[in-house]
Design brief:
heterodimer, A: 448 residues, 18-stranded antiparallel β-barrel, two-stranded antiparallel sheet, 3 helices, B: 258 residues, outer membrane lipoprotein receptor (LolB), chain A, 13-stranded antiparallel β-sheet, 14% helix
Amino acid sequence: MTSVGPGARPVDPYRILEVRRAIRVAPGGVLIAVLMACSAPAGAQDLDYRISAVDEATAWHLNPATPYNAGNAIVPQPVRGNTGTADAALGYGIFSTSLGFTAVASDIQRPDYRFDVREVAVDLSLGESWDLLLGKKILKWGTGYAFNPTGVIEPQRSPSDPTDRLNQNEGRNLVSLTGFIGKSSLTAVYLNDAVYAHSSLAWGKNEIALRAYTFLSGLDLSLVAHYREGDRLELGANTSYVVGNDLELHGEVLAKRGSSMLYHAILQSDDPAQEFTAFPYAAADDDSREIFCKLLAGGQFTFANGINVALEYYHNQEGLTLREWKRWMNFVNFQDAVQRGAVAVDPSLIAPSRLNLLWSLLTLSPRGTMRDYVFLRGAYAEEGWSCEAICFMNAADASVALIPTLTWKASAPVSVYARYTGYLGSNGSEFGSLFTTSGLGLGIGVQL
Amino acid sequence: MRNSVSIRLSTAALAAATFLAGGTSYRPAFAQEGSRPDPRKLLEQADLSRNGWDTFEVTAVIRNYQNGELKDEGSFDTYIKGADRTLVKFMNVDVKGQYLLMLEDAMWIYLPNTRKPIRITPLQRLLGDASNGDVARTRWAGDYDVTLKGEEKVDDVACYVLDLVARSDGATYNHVILWVRTEDSRPRKAEIYLTSGKHYKTIFYDTFSVVHGRLLLAQMTIIDRLREGSTTTMTFNGYNPREIPEKWFNKDYLEKLR
């Protein structure tokens, strides 16, 4: 497992560099919590609850050949760790909330505990056809399994853990109005990632998203528009369709003019032997008139014996080309050589080189750093046993993240699982150069 | 399993007798139309045994047996509106919060941890040998073209043999041979075949019960022909005619349901 930064905790192996969440309660959450405490919905209401807990112990095998982490000293990685989560999803009348507790420990850090109000919302029915949602909520709009280009307001999915097995995703502060018209719906959402902390409210950027959905002649079709203050308008569509009684096809596309994505300056240079003295990232395509697309095409097939196979291809035009990746990797290899002492440099340059190495890691994305990916998943369940194998492959360098999981349902509420994660690829490939080569997790889950 | 089925059949016979004595609206399709029945009407009559009202709810309990030993059990609250809308709520503790929606030919499953409806196919398994379509698709007449192949006895019960070929994409199976009782068009047995022609499942419609004056399916048994020793029973109880909000059957409403 890999993670970055001082006091790193073992998170999902490919979730490196994800922005760490602070313990915080959104202002919308505070409002809803007060409403929940003060209000009693009219009429008899049942408390609906779903409580789950997971404990996962994992051992990792560090990658001795990684250029990111010479001697496990740049970003120290744990070899053993344990993550425990407990989640409660509660619903009472118009109110719903999802609360989470996470405890993390590893051989390189003391136990760390975190409590999150992942969701808290009030859902009002405005007559037969309209619903108003207010609070902190996860709204998902995409049709893809591992990738979600049109999920413009949802937590970005990790292809190595599409189902968020440890329930780490959080909702966003929003007000949503949805109209249900027969087999269609229209949703307008206003979002603001405002944070209430230290007795003050810090407003985030205003964000608006619209979606029109319809089901027509067997075709699921959604049109999506999204605008975030200071950024650019994104337009997209997603669809799904079933052919016969065993094949499902789906696709998503999202496009925008230009990109505010930050790129490392080294991507423009063939000389890797450089050290930057200032933050080397800039929005290189901010003024571009080029259309940047994210594209997903996929499907799933169910065999008569119950085996389900899902296949997806994902293209992200904001990702690195193979040439850019090689330039970046050469730069990282140079910094790594400096850190290992394999290149003779002035001793005063070693510390800046380390900083350059850390900066360069910001290029990596847990959802894939380059442009083209293939995702393959096979799953089968039989008599309390279920197995799943995920293969997440970089189509440009053929490196692979392979994640088989075997689960045994010991009883109705209790399941036990083993989850292996292996990264395969040559030195210099995306998955072959990660911090670890493999990890084995053993977990137990309880759901009430 | 077959022993227990024959015990249930006697219950069914009793229920049927009670029903017929009561003189309700359930009648053989061909009663006033001469000796050769219209296969489509037979199929529509057979559909009535699982669709008592235009809008109603029913609880389905699915039990999966392996060599006679109970391996898995699941309970599903099912809401049906019209001919092409079904909502299935998963009641077991380990699948709490899951929903299955059928609208026309399409099906979605909503999983609380993924927080979004996922388009699925009717053939995907719900539990044991029961496919999603076995619970969610309750009307043959809309899904299949039908021809009458003749008459045959099943366990000494006289039946018409109907040959069903899928005509809609949403049909759970490609090819079904269905035996319906000559006496009252109730389904008695079905054999399911894959596109390849391979015999996939055999379904016995074991027991029926009278609910609010209607004779409705109470239990069916599914025998998997591809997995030796695997048998699944589906028991239906708690039939309740009720109005169900239209928006429950909109895919986007699934995450709001509790």
